Every structure is written in C-alpha cells, then in structure tokens.
Amino acid sequence: MILSTTHNLENRKITKYVGIVTGETIIGANFIKDFFAGIRDIVGGRSGSYEKVLREAKDSSMAEMVARAREMGADAIVGIDLDYETVGPNGGMLMVTASGTAVQLL
C-alpha cells in the first residue's frame, strides 16, 4: 500500500478514487505514571514518554486506515492528514485521527 500526504503520486496514474478512509485511536493517559515519567524524560523540552504514546496512537490509526482501504480494493491512500486532539474530562485522553482518499492505480 502506497501512502502519501500529497494528492498525486509521481510516475503513477490514479485510475479510480475509491473513497475516503479513516482510522481513529483514543488512548487514555495515566496521569500519575505520566507525571513521573515526564519528570524523568524531559530533556531539552521533550518528553520521551509522551512521544512514544503519540507514535503508538499514530501507528494504530494509520494501520486501521490502511486496513479499510485494502477492504475497498485500494492500491494507495493519497492526501493523508493526521489530527491530534485531547478529549474527555480534563483532556485526559488523546485522540489521533488519520484520514485520506483510497485510490486505485494504473
């Protein structure tokens, strides 16, 4: 499966726009664990614990989106967009949404 944030693929012709595909992941945050991990991990303004959670949520959303595109018979997904939001009481959960257009290629 070819994945692209662009709407065209160089040297490939899109023959059919199959449809919009999405993948969503919501991950709860364990604040006590995250607080202490954040204290340990913050170096130069970065938190390894939070970055790991973000990567896991993104990977999960992308995998779900790819699975849906395969079910639709797509060869690629173009125009991919990733959105990150906090949801729930006090923003205690992280939601990552991946979306794009499933296409078939020549």
Structure, explained:
- The chain has helices at 31-41, 48-71, and strands at 2-3, 14-28, 76-87, 93-105.
- The relative contact order is 0.34.
- By secondary structure, it is α+β, with helices and mostly antiparallel strands.
- The longest helix is centred in the middle third of the chain and has 24 residues, at 48-71.
- The protein contains 2 helices and 4 strands; from the N terminus they run ββααββ.
- Helices cover 33% and strands 40% of the residues.
Query: Structural class of the helix and strand makeup?
Result: alpha+beta
Secondary-structure element sequence?
Answer: EEHHEE
**Percentage of residues in strands:** 35-45%
Query: Would you report the number of β strands?
Result: 4
Shape summary? elongated
How do you describe this structure in short?
By secondary structure, the protein is α+β, with helices and mostly antiparallel strands. The chain is 33% helix and 40% strand.
Topology:
Elements: E1 2-3, E2 14-28, H1 31-41, H2 48-71, E3 76-87, E4 93-105
Parallel strand pairs: 1-3
Antiparallel strand pairs: 2-4, 3-4
List keywords for this structure.
106 residues, elongated, single chain, alpha+beta
